[in-house]
Amino acid sequence: MANPSLLILPGDGIGPEVMAEVRKIIDWFGAKRGLVFDVSEDLVGGAAYDVHGVPLSDETMAKAQEADAVLLGAVGGPKYDKLDFSVKPERGLLRLRKEMDLFSNLRPAQCFDALADFSSLKKDIIAGLDIMIVRELTSGVYFGEPRGIFTEGNERVGINTQRYTESEIARVARSAFELARRRGNKVCSMEKANVMESGILWREVVQEVHDKEYPDVELSHMYADNGAMQLVRWPKQFDVIVTDNLFGDVLSDCAAMLTGSLGMLPSASLGAPMANGRPKALYEPVHGSAPDIAGQGKANPIACVLSFAMALRYSFDQGNDADRLEKAVEKVLADGVRTADLMQNAGETPVSTSQMGDAIIAALDASL
Ligand code: NAI
Ligand code: MG
């Protein structure tokens, strides 16, 4: 059987720097664990604009549609700020998400014990936290019609429309239940069914999908405003949270920041299953291209490394090796290895991007 394929799009700024460390780790899994990927690399964002005059070429788009998973670094930078909106680096990323129809956005909030002091919450509330927010990404109020700014009488009115079809809710609910089965087997669905009809439908459809297809998973429902309170009060009560595009945008940023640095946060965006049963998938760190530190070897590669761990788990069914990689990251942090963004005390010496990658490889070696 052919090896699974992985399309790598390093992008701009620190994207190529953090991706270089992930390449070392991919090679390690090939050499030491027999997990060989068919890796190809291509351009996205400003890097693609420089060569093709567009932030994502049709050829690259076609490769992304074929790949078993896409791993992206980051796009954008001051050099491209004045470009026309239609060719801005971010449009490359948006095109990928749209044409791959990636409706399920996975944002973990995971706290490594060694970094528990980084949180704005008390250590015992946050230590050991491991939750996953599933945000619907392709519908809802960011896309619903009618929208716009209109004039009514003698004043302006701004309009957006929250709109969800049954099938849009059902598919993201399935995605959350599937994830829960691989984790703590618990889903909490959040909406505002008390004040929004789309929320009433959301609650009904999630419950129906549960009862018909996933009765083994524990399901609860919560109003999203209460959900926000519960997230900062006692986040460990949750396993998987599933919610709409707008609430998910806010709740996932809130949950992610419970755990500390932007340089630590991975993400995945999943679509419908392909012919081989794997979901269409794009994995990327939450952070951007960090022009302020680009080219200096200062970037923390962990967000990108953990994005690859998510690919191992959710695209390639290698949960044990995903655990192995996450444990290696945990060990390196417990040993006090820190890039500059993770420094708390003056006088500590940070490691470089590649030293962090090497430390993770050493921890992987020690795991064999
Ligand atoms: P950013 O995430 O690039 O940087 C924000 C701050 O966090 C900076 O001080 C940066 O140095 C730091 N930081 C980010 N990632 C880090 C890492 N791995 N290690 C250490 N420090 C890290 O967000 P910003 O500054 O708002 O945007 C910069 C550029 O990136 C813009 O062109 C923006 O459009 C683009 N961007 C791209 C994203 C993507 O590719 N998904 C997401 C967000 C922004
Ligand atoms: Mg946001």
TrEMBL record:
Organism superkingdom: Bacteria
Xref: NCBIfam families: leuB
GO molecular function: 3-isopropylmalate dehydrogenase activity
SUPFAM superfamilies: Isocitrate/Isopropylmalate dehydrogenase-like (SSF53659)
Site (Important for catalysis): Y142, K192
This protein's name: 3-isopropylmalate dehydrogenase
Subunit structure: Homodimer.
Organism: Albidovulum marisflavi
Reaction catalysis annotation: (2R,3S)-3-isopropylmalate + NAD(+) = 4-methyl-2-oxopentanoate + CO2 + NADH
Cofactor: Mg(2+); Mn(2+)
Segments forming domain Isopropylmalate dehydrogenase-like: 5-360
Residues bound to NAD(+): 77-90, 288-300
Taxonomic classification: Bacteria, Pseudomonadati, Pseudomonadota, Alphaproteobacteria, Rhodobacterales
Record's function text: Catalyzes the oxidation of 3-carboxy-2-hydroxy-4-methylpentanoate (3-isopropylmalate) to 3-carboxy-4-methyl-2-oxopentanoate. The product decarboxylates to 4-methyl-2 oxopentanoate.
Ligand binding (Mg(2+)): D225, D249, D253
Family stated for the protein in its record: Belongs to the isocitrate and isopropylmalate dehydrogenases family. LeuB type 1 subfamily.
Record-listed E.C. numbers: 1.1.1.85
Pfam family membership, one: Iso_dh
Annotated localization: Cytoplasm
PANTHER family, sorted: 3-ISOPROPYLMALATE DEHYDROGENASE (PTHR42979)
